[in-house]
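--- STAGE predict ---
source: upstream dedup step, 1 unique chain passed
mode: sequence only
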Amino acid sequence: MSDTTPITVNRTLPRRRTNADYRQREYLTESEVEKLIEAARKRGRNGQRDSAAILLAYRHGLRAQELCQLRWAQIDLAHGRLHVNRAKGGAESVHPLRGPELRALRPLKGESPYVFVTEAGTPVTTAWFLRMLQRTGQAAKLAFTVHPHMLRHACGYKLANDGHDTRSLAHYLGHRNLQSTARYTALAEGRFAGFWKD
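--- STAGE serialize ---
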């Protein structure tokens, strides 16, 4: 009697390259975000929705999942508040909504409980957000490929450069560990402003 046990070949998957192999940096500058928002506003039938999604992700350091799951129940337009439910075990918080966000959100209010929806009325997905951002980055003529997490990092770097302390920044971004936030203050250009006085 012969052995009919299948023979399996032990194959290993190639290791994923580091982010640095794909991109020169992990964040966007404030002017690059403004270019993205302007390009999104002009692109396609859903420019209002797309530009609002970019603005909210940037201003509130939202991950793609947090943005796509955002519901109107989390937003108080009358008092200018956003209840942020963080993914990945992050700490929840309440953020103020300023004029630009309020003006971007009001026209989107519809029947869906979700803030960002497709033309069919279903919630947008993280895959949609990635594709939309990449196409918008090309339309904005950015020299590199844009991905959603760059908006979260852009928020951290902007606030760190504005001089906000690490602990407040950690609470704003929902970090439970200050080491996650330290990357933003480490790269804040303002730290070195007084090093050379010519």
